[in-house]
Amino acid sequence: MSEFHRGRRLRRSATLREMVRETEIRPQDLMMLYFVAETDDKDFRKPIGSMPGQFQLSLKQLEKQVGEAVASGLRSLMLFGIPAHKDEKASGAYDDNGIVQRAIRMIKDKWPQLLVCPDVCLCEYTSHGHCGIVKDGDVLNDPTLDLLARTALSYAEAGADMVAPSDMMDGRVQAIRDILDAGGHANLPIMSYAVKYSSAFYGPFREAAESAPKFGDRKTYQMDPANSREAMREAAADAFEGADILMVKPALAYLDIIRQVRDSFDMPIAAYQVSGEYSMIKAAAQNGWIDEQAVVMESLTSIKRAGADLILSYFTEDVLKTL
Ligand code: PBG
Fold first, then answer.
1. C-alpha 228 to ligand 1 mean position (Å)
2. Torsion of CA 257, 253, 54, 245, to 10 degrees
3. Whether the predicted pLDDT of 2 surpasses 70
């Protein structure tokens, strides 16, 4: 017997390394994210400055973009809406003819097999940019639940395959489950942003979705990045209320949380590689400081290795082309 461990034996060739590889990114593990804008300009395709390669798209441009992604093997996508008008009650979110509802109908009509999962939140639709109803500077929990539920139902009726509440109000998974069940959508899954931190990594997204809060921050509803035991309580609450998939967000700075949720819950776990994670990789790559493709694959592999079954990533289209 050899006196020491020869780990290099299994690294000698690409074939061997592939044979013993423990973690793999598959096309079905990746969900792409799109920003669809309510506009009459069919050619509208506005680059998002802080997210090179990402755009706000008109319905027509979204159709083109999704068509190309489907050709590369896209299986699922999430939608964020940029409404033409915002108000205090986020009316655009639960308008049956809202921009996301129209996008869902368009996509399901063209590609019935594509899984469409709209993000359910109010911050893109409120004039103040908060994820709920605001009174005297406070984001009210319970009055917001009804609007979130109506939004989810409206998306379900437009043909969504799954809904993903990202607002972090308490009790929203139950409110959404109840309205979906009552509305004949008992089979529609909910992927909850169960463990969503109040993160500076969302900065570029707020430019992309035009959803930055006009006052204050989201610290009274999103979680403190310092907490991991609290993550277990949030995940347990959403599982109890009827979530089908639990999401952790952001991803790379929270791999420990992904692993803890994975180990504690026998449910599918999703992780969201957020805008800031995307932008940092893009910026470094554009400077020639890192190899973009290699860093993207290494990051996604780490997120899966930590325990995520599914990854929401702005790199999805790029990765599908290389798989
Ligand atoms: C809506 C929402 C946000 C993100 C996803 N859904 C923004 C926020 O909470 O401020 C962030 C996604 C990203 O950074 O890519 N509440």
1. 20
2. 0
3. no
